[in-house]
Amino acid sequence: MKVNSERLKDSMDTLEKSHNWPVGLVGKLSSFISDGDDYDLFRVNPLKFADEYHISSLDGIDLFLWATKLNIFQMNWELLCPACGDHIQSFRHLNTMHDKIFCSLCQCEQIASLDDWIQVTFTVNPKIRVIKFHHPESLSIEEFIFEYHFTPGARLNKEFPFGGEEIVKVIKNSTKGVTFVESSEKEVIEFDLSEGMLRIYDFLNQKGLHLPVSPVTREIEQSIDLKYVNNDFEIGQLQLNSGKVKFTFENDSDRRSALLFILFPAEILDHMDQDFTIVLDPYLDGKKLLTSQTFRDLFRHEVIQGNEGINVKDLTILFTDLKGSTELYDKVGDLKAFDLVNSHFESLSKVITNNSGAIVKTIGDAIMATFANPLDAIKAATGIVQDLKEFNQNHGGENIIIKIGVHKGSSIAVTLNDRLDYFGQTVNTAARVQGLADAEEIYITDSVYDIEEVQSEISGYTVVPERTKLKGIEEEVDVYKVLIESVGSSMAV
């Protein structure tokens, strides 16, 4: 264990002063860094950390973001294979990341979304503590394949054989052999085969080979020559029989090979022909990170490169706007009105941040905020209206009047004017739904209202269903007006 104790102490002192942390949390992180094993400090999941240390997920994410800003940890953007959980590629910064997944082991090809198969993890900085995963070339073959590559908490769907089991355990149990083979070297690997599909995968060269295995047993050992040359495998035999097999692998390339021989039995293969995806334990995905105000504040340089952006399958967008701001400036004067509006924005921002949202931009007197969870957006919306009542009481009257709209759907994360932004019909709809609202009204679309938790959250307010036309949208849409002033029971459609 190589811990730079002096640097760790100085960093923890700075971290403690950076934010209003729960009592003792920074000390727990310090112990985690000092005492945790190497694997614990490699690709840390902040949601798992938060759960284990009994803090909110918001505090867990903020903790590792601040720790990254202070060079205690390094942030990793990971592309995951949806079929096996292999880390296809890791990126230190968002502006170097692409969204194209191809796993040679699974023959899986897919485009990732910020909320689907993009995982954000944190690895301790080697200047604070050196762990063996900082030098993957020094790992054993088992560590390199099963710990360095595969994602913990990736599980098989319950409807498949071994459902609920961590896929890395299933892969380990199905593995027939693993080995490094240096450049220009040979290696012999022997094992028994049964009916299924033998997959040979080189984790360093990202090449795979799939060989069907017949149920017919061959009594004599099968001897197979396998070569890696010209950036691909060469093999003289494409059909194998059950029974003993000996592979003689020749690495005729200029780099090392890291080989996995894995036999998928017929019972698994039958299911893999279906739409096969794994299930991940709760993790920090790209969408959750981009809806963190702390991330947007601390890492303003993190932007998406290219014109196409990255897809987000399901994003909740909240728009607010002030009603009668022109009259306000006439009524109280420019200076006081400016001060009131700025104070309101500070209060509004606090409510949004406390409900796991982030302000994307301000447009005049309007703001656009995003949330990973629609329930958080609704809590923020009702909290903003309620907070505004107290705000106006403390500032001498009903001067600030707000209107709110909430909608969710798919979007494209892009970079506009050197900042992370969103583009698409979901954004346009959310803005136009906000335009329906009057003073202290919240309008939500059916995509938000149809969520059971949302209905429960607004059950204490009067909810008025409407069907209306929105500019730029051909068909009428169902919307719901939530009246914070009038307390009653929700109305059914």
How does this model look, in words?
The structure is a single chain. By secondary structure, this protein is of the alpha+beta class. It contains 15 helices and 25 strands. It has helices spanning 5-18, 25-35, 46-52, 57-69, 141-149, 167-174, 266-272, 286-290, 293-298, 325-332, 334-354, 374-394, 425-434, 446-449, 452-457; strands spanning 2-3, 73-80, 87-91, 100-103, 108-111, 118-124, 129-130, 154-155, 175-181, 186-193, 196-202, 207-217, 222-229, 232-235, 240-251, 257-265, 279-280, 310-322, 357-363, 366-371, 402-416, 419-423, 441-445, 461-468, 477-487. Helix 1 runs antiparallel to helix 2, helix 10 (325-332) crosses helix 11 (334-354) and helix 11 (334-354) packs antiparallel against helix 12 (374-394). The longest helix is centred in the C-terminal third of the chain and has 21 residues, at 334-354. Residues 486-493 have low confidence and may be disordered.
Number of strands: 25
Overall SS class: alpha+beta
Instruction: Compute the CA-based radius of gyration.
Output: 27 Å
Compute the separation of the termini in Å: 63 Å
Largest sheet: 8 strands, mixed
* CATH homologous superfamily descriptor of the largest domain: Nucleotide cyclase, GGDEF domain
Indicate the low-confidence ranges by residue numbers. Answer: 486-493
Helical content (DSSP H or I, runs of 4+): 25-40%
